[in-house]
């Protein structure tokens, strides 16, 4: 477990460097988690009170449409930070759910401990800002792609950026993420073969 913790600390230092004191403070706040395939880290409507650091596995974030149909909006893999940001920040029910697509494990920090780290260490607060900026840029890119690219173009972009995703994520979640039906995704894939 210590090796995984050290790897996480190194990943965080790559975002923004920090010293031994901050490293020890973060390490003392990390709690290990495991999630079985299909298990929820967060259900829609629950308050997100943790920020997760995914060391192994895959997580999806999804919303429910007006007919209560799940729509996948994000995939997280090793090294990703997993959170319902608005729920964490405002301590309100989440608009999204977080579900393991594979057996997953990593660490989490509870919100009060995270707030304490930010208050005590400016470097960690700055790192948090950088992580939030990356999260927002990723969301902005997804929205742009969804509104300005065709289904074929979104598929091609996903293939170019994350070809390996097809080996780890069920196709119906990928279709949902791309905003197409399962049948349309099958047709697009068949044309590209």
Automatic annotation (TrEMBL):
* Pfam families in the record: cNMP_binding
InterPro entries recorded = cNMP-bd_dom, cNMP-bd_dom_sf, RmlC-like_jellyroll
Q: Where is the Cyclic nucleotide-binding domain?
A: 33-117
SUPFAM superfamilies per the UniProt record, alphabetical = cAMP-binding domain-like
From what superkingdom does this record's organism come?
Bacteria
Coiled-coil parts of chain: none
What name appears for this protein in its UniProt entry? Crp/Fnr family transcriptional regulator
Membrane-spanning parts: none
